Amino acid sequence: MPLFRRVPKRGFSNSDFRTDYHVVNIGDLEERFESGAHVTPEAILEAGLIRNLRNKVKVLGDGQLTKKLKIEASKFSKSAEEKIKGAGGEAIVV
Questions:
Q1: CATH for 16-93, among 3.100.10.10, 3.30.559.10, 3.40.50.1820, 3.40.190.10?
Q2: What confidence tier does 11 reach under pLDDT thresholds 50, 70, 90?
Q3: Taking the CB of the first residue and of the last residue of the chain, which one, N or C, has fewer CB atoms within 10 A?
């Protein structure tokens, strides 16, 4: 039996090095925060939109935003960033 068939095969897993994000939609921020609010990951945690602060926060553009919000997050989708700036708010990458 050749050596390469006798040795167990183990692949490479990138799970130790990947970046996990908590996903928050613009529509959820619209419902939970007042106009002019400063939205941080800690405020999102208190609002009950994420479970913990272990992972980074990513804001997606699902929903409508009519309030002027100053949002801090690790990452924004392009549509979310456009909607935030279109409503007069500010998207800050932390």
A1: 3.100.10.10
A2: confident
A3: N
